[in-house]
């Protein structure tokens, strides 16, 4: 199969490495010549160009630029596409992408490989990044069964785990387990930083260890990614944050009332509820 990839960064480059290893021909497009050159040198693509016209012969095109660029790239790409080309994306939110993209190109199916690292760019691309990871596909009633099968086969080539759901269900689910934690973790860091006594602040920074490293990791990551999650998954994230704030208020109330039995039961429940998420 001839696969086109637009956006040769961590995700686009990693997909190219794995699909080439499976015998697919991979054509890549990225904005910078240096990225295209490195993608060829690293073996992520067979050919690369800054010109979307390179993808005219592709059977499947995977859009891997930052979220805000996915729809504009599709618009720029369509004059070059063959009518039967199947297009998908890898964006971390789905509804805001799938609705305009499918409207524009009916043979568009949303996708989200749920693997990554803290690094960015073509140098960060790695073989086997998606092995065992969830890969969500979000077909709609417009989607052709044959197109969905084509994508499922490509995801299987990555040894990732296919999950199929609606774009809306995806966004609500990732709001709970990915986007809410980023905002909670960011707020945790900001709150600790509000300690007024510089000596206490310095002591806290010195004492911070594995627990703080775990709970602050996602809030201390790439600000652009966090902003895009908020902008493009605003409704689901707001709903999750509202429920979370109610939970925090509840904990504050138990502390104020010294209601230790109820707090203990709550912590017992959260201890039991954690494993199914992991
Ligand atoms: P990245 O490493 O920064 O790669 C994105 C690449 O896209 C950049 O290297 C850039 O290459 C290229 N690019 C930017 N604008 C472009 C445009 N208009 N046309 C063509 N190429 C363009 O980012 P990433 O982590 O791979 O994320 C890419 C997508 O994957 C995002 O939509 C994100 O939501 C999704 N995703 C990310 C993760 C993660 O953990 N990182 C996980 C799952 C999904 P140039 O240097 O050539 O400009």
Q: How many strands appear in the DSSP assignment?
A: 8
Q: Report mean pLDDT, rounded to a whole number.
A: 97
Give the strand content.
5-15%
List of distinct ligands in this structure: NADP nicotinamide-adenine-dinucleotide phosphate
Percent of residues in helices comes to 40-55%
Gap between N and C termini: 35 Å
The CATH class of the largest domain is Alpha Beta
Please give a structural write-up.
This protein has helices at 10-21, 33-41, 67-77, 95-104, 145-157, 167-192, 198-207, 210-216, 223-232, 234-256, 260-273; strands at 2-6, 25-29, 47-49, 60-63, 86-89, 108-113, 134-138, 161-164. By secondary structure, it is of the alpha/beta class. It has two domains: 2-165, Rossmann fold, CATH 3.40.50; 169-277, 6-phosphogluconate dehydrogenase C-terminal fold. α3 links the parallel β4 (60-63) and β5 (86-89). α6 (167-192) packs across α10 (234-256). The longest helix is centred in the middle third of the chain and has 26 residues, at 167-192. The model has no long low-confidence stretch (mean pLDDT 97). NADP nicotinamide-adenine-dinucleotide phosphate binds at residues 6-12, 29-32, 35, 64-67, 69, 73, 90-92, 113, 116, 120-121.
Indicate the topology.
Elements: E1 2-6, H1 10-21, E2 25-29, H2 33-41, E3 47-49, E4 60-63, H3 67-77, E5 86-89, H4 95-104, E6 108-113, E7 134-138, H5 145-157, E8 161-164, H6 167-192, H7 198-207, H8 210-216, H9 223-232, H10 234-256, H11 260-273
Parallel strand pairs: 1-2, 1-4, 2-3, 4-5, 5-6, 7-8
Antiparallel strand pairs: 6-7
Helix pairs in contact: 3-4, 6-10
The chain binds NADP nicotinamide-adenine-dinucleotide phosphate (NAP).
């Amino acid at each position: 199969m001839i696969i086109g990839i637009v956006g040769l960064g961590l995700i686009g480059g990693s997909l190219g490495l794995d699909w080439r290893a499976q015998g697919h021909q991979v054509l890549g497009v990225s904005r910078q010549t240096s990225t295209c050159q490195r993608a060829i040198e690293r073996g992520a693509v067979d050919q690369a160009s800054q010109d979307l016209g390179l993808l005219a012969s592709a059977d499947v095109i995977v859009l891997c630029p930052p979220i805000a660029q996915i729809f504009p790239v599709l618009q720029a790409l369509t004059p070059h596409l063959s009518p039967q080309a199947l297009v998908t994306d890898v964006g971390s939110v789905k509804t805001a992408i799938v609705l305009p993209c499918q409207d524009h190109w009916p043979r568009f199916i949303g996708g989200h490989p749920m693997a990554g690292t803290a690094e960015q760019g073509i140098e960060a691309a790695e073989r086997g990044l998606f092995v065992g990871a969830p890969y969500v596909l979000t077909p709609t009633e417009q989607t052709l069964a044959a197109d969905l099968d084509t994508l499922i086969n490509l995801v299987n080539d990555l040894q990732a785990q296919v999950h199929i759901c609606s774009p809306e269900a995806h966004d609500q689910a990732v709001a709970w387990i990915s986007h809410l934690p980023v905002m909670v973790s960011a707020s945790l860091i900001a709150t600790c930083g509000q300690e007024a006594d510089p000596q206490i602040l310095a002591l806290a920074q010195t004492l911070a260890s594995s627990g703080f490293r775990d709970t602050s990791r996602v809030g201390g990551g790439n600000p652009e990614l966090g902003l895009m999650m908020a902008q493009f998954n605003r409704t689901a994230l707001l709903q999750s944050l509202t429920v979370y704030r109610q939970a925090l208020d509840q904990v504050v109330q138990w502390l104020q009332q010294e209601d230790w039995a109820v707090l203990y039961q709550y912590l017992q429940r959260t201890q039991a509820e954690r494993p199914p998420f992991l």
